[in-house]
Amino acid sequence: MDLQLVEAHIPEKFFEKVGESLKKYPYVSYWVSQATNDKRLVRILVETKDAEEILNYLESVTDVVDGFEVLLFPVQTYMRRLTDEEKEQQKEEEEQEKNKLQRASRQELLGSIEKSSHITLTYTMLVILSAIVVTIGFIKNSEAVIIGAMVIAPMLGPVISIAFSSILGDFKLIRSASFTLFYAIALVLGISIFISFFLPVPVDSSEFATRTHVNLTDIVLALASGTAGALSILNQLPGALVGVMVAVALLPPTAVLGMTIGSAMWQEAFGSMLLLTGNITSVILAAIVVFSLSGIRPVKFDEMEKAKTSLKLSILFVSVVIILLITAILFSHQFDIV
């Protein structure tokens, strides 16, 4: 049983009402103490699956009343002797939870996702290094070097942030994450174009050639990558390995696009552009679907209305792009364009 501790510092004059409301939510243990002369400290030990509901309530309260402070802590160990009835109930709940999509609370997810949607010096350096390594990997036709570049490429964060913010209707976060993603793509393009001026483009390389055209299996791979990335974020799993899978869909096509542009190989550049566009939209669509199925929703009414509109527009836009790309793929193969 995964547990978390919610701490709420509640102004004395609101404690009675808020305290009664908090006791209506499911909890394992509930403690109250006097924090200061004008505040009560409420500690609520809850199962992780129940934390978001309590946090949503406290969030709605803190938005209208000054003086509230809320903290959330992970609980590593909790010891208490359970009754036979509690043990049986715990087994039933565990069986029910097996069929549900597990995830952290919306507040936890939002905090970690916001960090990955902004440009930092570390992010910039990792993008530059991964761009240099992947371009050299293509020139050397070395699969190991290309994989190494994808390990350090920080491509997962901004793509997943776009999908997550679309669910919440957070247009500010969408803009920030989109800018961060296209900033990375622009850096990779610029570096690969620059290197192609001085080193020969590996036109005979199998690794290079596979990124100059697109087919339906590439779209399926990108959808699987987006699904894996979203699931890893939902459960706050280490993102390195899943990040590699997302980078597979984004980093190599971008580098090849830059190299083909730098060498004026326009037909190959067209294929790489189709591949990159299809991969980005597929990853975002898959992540949007996973986040939507997990039950992530905003709390406030006005935010809920924005979220509904944002979700519909996002799915519509991404779906249309993917349909157009599939049509272009089929058309291109039919006439041997790509």
Outline the structure in words.
This protein is of the alpha+beta class. Helix 11 packs antiparallel against helix 12. A 4-stranded antiparallel β-sheet has the order 2-3-1-4. The model has no long low-confidence stretch (mean pLDDT about 80). The protein contains 13 helices and 4 strands. The longest helix is centred in the last third of the chain and has 34 residues, at about 300-335. It is about 65% helix and about 10% strand.
What key phrases describe this protein's structure?
single chain, 338 residues, alpha+beta, four-stranded antiparallel beta sheet, 13 helices, 4 strands, 10% strand, elongated
Spans where pLDDT lies below 50 across 5 or more residues: none
DSSP, total strands: 4
Radius of gyration over alpha carbons?
A: 24 Å
| End-to-end distance | 53 Å
- The coarse overall form would be elongated
Strands across the major sheet, in which order? 2-3-1-4
- Helix share bin: 55-70%
SSE inventory with pairings:
Layout: E1 3-11, H1 12-22, E2 29-36, E3 39-47, H2 48-62, E4 69-75, H3 84-97, H4 106-115, H5 121-140, H6 143-152, H7 156-168, H8 171-196, H9 206-209, H10 216-234, H11 240-262, H12 266-293, H13 301-334
Antiparallel strand pairs: 1-3, 1-4, 2-3
